[in-house]
């Protein structure tokens, strides 16, 4: 069937990177060159509609006239076309830089995928041996279900699922059912439906700067399956160990450890320490360059360059987990690392943070050397991801409904973050909050206790979810984002049951121990995840306790109550 051309609508995000401000006129030329580059690399395919000049100017922090002049110049050069009521689009016939480079690998993978779709009993090539644990490994310890009796939920790593766009999803699903061709209801390409891969390639290129053709995208059941497939393929190609950031998600550690040795690499204010990585025997590394989880730092430009150099020298693989790259507030978005080295960086993501984990859809942007084995591994794992959900997501992307939902959620999450920052500044003046420029969570670092003791698994879970992560060498050197001015949020928006005290002295006062914090949170319906949930290895005795606060998790109407419960419990500790 013909490959559909993605349709972009006004008001969409567009990631283009401009250099530093210079002399008069360079901003216009920078916009022009950035758009030329995006078109050459295929991130803006022929026929793609660009944002309105007003929208792009707002995103870039430029005047509308500057963007309008850049559009006019590119129209004159033939890169763009403008038509009344049709907006400004990329002109047809513009060659992409990636087409010829990936043609051979694409043809091979397509042949294999077609063979598998034609006869699912006969895989096109020998498949790597996979067990269920490699494709959907259970976290450690095993998940025990939702928290019992929870009144408040501030656990990190989750979106507000009550805001799932039910009406838009229902419309998209209905259209998918009514308009899907008959062959969509049978066995298909293990990579996923071409409609979704085409829409995703356009979206990821436009918003995250990812350089990938639809034929090199593989649709999977979220990042969990993506990581399981990757570790299985790595093991089958001779990789013996994978490096993982410390701290990191324990589930990711468990999945990787099922097939590979795991090497810890610490994180500081510049991100993953590449020098430590180079000292290991790892042949691959899993990292979160745009917004490290849970610390919230971005990989610095120097570290990005060093990491790519490591991959070239080691002949290694970089797995880029872009888990919340669409949520940024006080800074320009950080583009995907994959754009700088598509043949070395495996870009993976999902819609678990943007829509919700109930829709089990994710993706892998496959380097050419990994495409065929990943397609084979996916075929063996589950043959294909749910087709109707794929078509519904493609509809959301093409119609602009997905972008509209993200814009709505970004505004709401920013308001929650602002309230958290203002409330902490007013009520916990000796606390420090970091990692607030992007994402769905923040680090709330509390004053150190005289002799803090590392939390152990003997402290049970309770109900308002938040993660206690004491961390000295990492958090103490973590960059502190600019504090949001107190005028940003009216005083009346502070939870009313928390009243600032004027008796707190300004000099340093020893803080509570982590055992006291855990007990206070438990008494206030707070369920605490302990240090072992994120940080591996010993923690210094003087480490300041810190909370990873997931401000996106509660529903909008429940957030103030959850924040009230959290800060009241902490303030009562003195």
Describe the overall structure.
The protein has 574 residues and is an alpha/beta fold. It folds into three domains: 1-97, Arc Repressor Mutant, subunit A (Orthogonal Bundle); 99-134 and 164-400, Type I PLP-dependent aspartate aminotransferase-like (Major domain) (Aspartate Aminotransferase, domain 2); 405-572, Alpha-Beta Complex (Aspartate Aminotransferase, domain 1). 37% of the residues lie in helices and 12% in strands. The chain contains 16 helices and 15 strands. It has an eight-stranded mixed β-sheet with strand order 3-10-9-8-7-4-5-6, sandwiched between helices. α14 packs parallel to α16. It is globular.
Secondary-structure class? alpha/beta
Largest sheet, strands/sense/barrel: 8 strands, mixed
Q: Which fold name fills CATH's third level, the topology of the largest domain?
A: Aspartate Aminotransferase, domain 2
Instruction: Kindly state the percentage of residues in helix.
Output: 25-40%
Task: Work out the strand percent.
Answer: 5-15%
Give a brief rundown of this model.
With 574 residues, this protein is of the alpha/beta class. Helix content is 37%, strand content 12%. The protein has 3 domains: 1-97, Arc Repressor Mutant, subunit A (Orthogonal Bundle), CATH 1.10.10; 99-134 and 164-400, Type I PLP-dependent aspartate aminotransferase-like (Major domain) (Aspartate Aminotransferase, domain 2, 3-Layer(aba) Sandwich), CATH 3.40.640.10; 405-572, Aspartate Aminotransferase, domain 1 (Alpha-Beta Complex), CATH 3.90.1150.
Key attributes of the depicted protein:
574 residues, Arc Repressor Mutant, subunit A, Aspartate Aminotransferase, domain 2, Aspartate Aminotransferase, domain 1, 3 domains, eight-stranded mixed beta sheet, five-stranded mixed beta sheet, 15 strands
């Amino acid at each position: 069937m013909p490959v559909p051309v993605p349709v972009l609508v006004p008001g969409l995000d567009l990631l283009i990177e401009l250099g530093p401000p210079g002399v008069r006129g360079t901003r216009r030329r920078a916009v022009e060159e950035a758009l030329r580059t995006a078109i050459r690399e295929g991130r803006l395919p022929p026929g793609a509609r660009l944002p309105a000049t007003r929208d792009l100017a707002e995103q870039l922090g430029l005047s509308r006239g500057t963007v309008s002049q850049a559009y006019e110049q590119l129209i004159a050069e033939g890169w763009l076309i403008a038509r009344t009521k049709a907006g400004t689009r990329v002109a047809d016939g513009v060659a992409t830089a990636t087409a010829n480079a990936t043609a051979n690998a694409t043809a091979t993978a397509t042949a294999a995928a077609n063979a598998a779709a034609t006869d699912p009993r006969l895989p096109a090539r020998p498949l790597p041996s996979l067990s269920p644990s490699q494709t959907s490994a259970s976290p450690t310890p095993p998940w025990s279900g939702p928290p019992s009796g929870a009144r408040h939920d501030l656990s990190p790593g989750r979106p507000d699922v009550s805001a799932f766009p039910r009406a838009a999803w229902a419309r998209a699903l209905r259209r998918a059912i009514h308009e899907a061709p008959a062959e969509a209801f049978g066995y298909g390409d293990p990579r996923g439906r071409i409609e979704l891969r085409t829409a995703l390639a356009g979206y990821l290129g436009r918003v995250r700067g990812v350089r990938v053709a639809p034929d090199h995208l593989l649709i999977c059941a979220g990042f969990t399956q993506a990581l399981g497939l990757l570790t299985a393929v790595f093991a089958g190609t001779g990789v013996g160990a994978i490096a993982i950031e410390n701290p990191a998600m324990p589930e990711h550690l468990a999945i990787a450890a099922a097939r590979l040795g795991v090497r810890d690499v610490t994180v500081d204010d510049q991100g993953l320490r590449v020098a430590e990585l180079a000292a290991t025997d790892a042949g691959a590394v899993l990292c979160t360059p745009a917004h490290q989880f849970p610390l919230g730092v971005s990989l610095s430009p120097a570290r990005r360059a060093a990491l790519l150099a490591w991959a070239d020298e080691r002949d290694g693989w970089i797995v880029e987990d872009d888990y919340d790259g669409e949520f940024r507030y006080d800074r320009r978005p950080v583009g995907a690392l994959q754009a700088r080295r598509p043949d070395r960086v495996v870009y993976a993501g999902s819609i678990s943070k943007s829509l919700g984990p109930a829709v089990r859809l994710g993706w892998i942007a496959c380097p050419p050397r990994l495409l065929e084995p990943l397609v084979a591994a996916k075929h063996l794992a589950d043959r294909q991801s749910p087709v109707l959900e794929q078509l519904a997501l493609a509809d959301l992307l093409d119609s602009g409904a997905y972008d509209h939902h993200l814009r709505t959620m970004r505004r709401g999450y920013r308001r929650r973050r602002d309230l958290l920052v203002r409330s902490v500044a007013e009520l916990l003046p000796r606390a420090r909050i970091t990692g607030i420029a992007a994402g769905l969570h923040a680090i709330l670092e509390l004053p150190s206790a005289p002799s803090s003791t590392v939390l152990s698994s003997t402290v049970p879970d309770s109900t308002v979810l938040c993660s206690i992560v004491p961390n000295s060498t990492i958090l103490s050197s973590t960059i502190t984002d600019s504090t949001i001015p107190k005028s940003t949020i009216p005083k009346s928006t502070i939870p009313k049951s928390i009243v600032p005290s004027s008796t707190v002295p300004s000099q340093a006062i020893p803080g509570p121990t982590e055992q006291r914090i855990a007990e206070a949170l438990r008494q206030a319906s707070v369920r605490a995840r302990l240090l072992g949930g994120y940080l591996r290895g010993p923690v210094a005795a003087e480490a300041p306790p810190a909370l990873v606060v997931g401000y996106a998790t509660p529903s909008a109407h429940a957030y103030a109550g959850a924040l009230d419960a959290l800060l009241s419990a902490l303030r009562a500790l003195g």
